[in-house]
Amino acid sequence: MKTYKDFDKDKIINTYLKCGSSNKVAQQTSCSQFMVLRILKENNIKIIPYKLTQEEKQNASRIRLELWKEPSYRKIQSESHKGIIPSKESLIKRSNSIKKNLPSTIFKKGIIPWNKDKKDIFSKEILDKIKESRNKKAYIIYSKEANLKRSLSLKGKQKSPEHIKKVADFHRGRKRSKETCERKRQDRAKQIIPTQDTSIEIKIQNLLSLLHIEYIAHKYISEIEHNYRCDIFIPEQEGITQKTIIECDGDYWHGNPYFYPEEKLNHKQIGQRERDEFRTKELIEKGFRVIRIWEHEIKKMKVNELKEKLK
User: Fold this and answer.
1) What is the CATH code of the structural domain delimited by 199-309?
2) Where are the domains of the chain?
3) Assessment of whether the complete model's pTM goes beyond 0.70
């Protein structure tokens, strides 16, 4: 039986960087998936999140349903959950998932309301109480738990075009003071956007780790006028004589001219190209070295290719 020392770690890492699946690496290198994940973790290689296909999702749900038909499996599950008190967050998540699966009870055209043509349903005392409670609600400071419940209930809900237009019309033409703009800029600097790295960013980070180069992911660049969060920032160190920024540009969102010529670009791609150009110009003026790499290049990239780009 093979031990940890017997496996070719470089081969396993290179195979993973090519295919991006620990299961496929295990099959190709005749090694267990657990061992592959252990080797990747010890070498600071980030795991690229695997997205299930529709067929795989259907198979998983079918297997789950078949398991639940067996009484022995249900008994094991119920006994494993006995005495466990669920957290508030898990209860909120569960309630939200139940709400999403429930049939819609929103008022629709054609449905006659229950109080149509009815008068004096509530007494004056009750109406006064309702008014008082409504006035009080305007000044209530909600707790963190209540705010969390509200934010979770609103997640995933799409706003109507009429609502979006109302908000846009309200803000259109309004001039903000310099203090407000500065406060918003400071708040934006504290935000971590995006919350999750893309697969191409993870690959570049893994290649940098193999080259033993220190980097900072999504660093806020405040030295330029149009400050923003870059994809990867490399500070000055041994072998890197200049502050370097690596931008991992998606072929679609950044409008790769190889795939999307100017006449085929949409307004979002045009705007993103313009932002990329003036940001790159500002960064170079402030003494940064900017390396922009396209998505299709990153997918095929090897360690030596990135090493050459950083020279």
Assistant:
1) 3.40.960.10
2) 7-42, 199-309
3) no
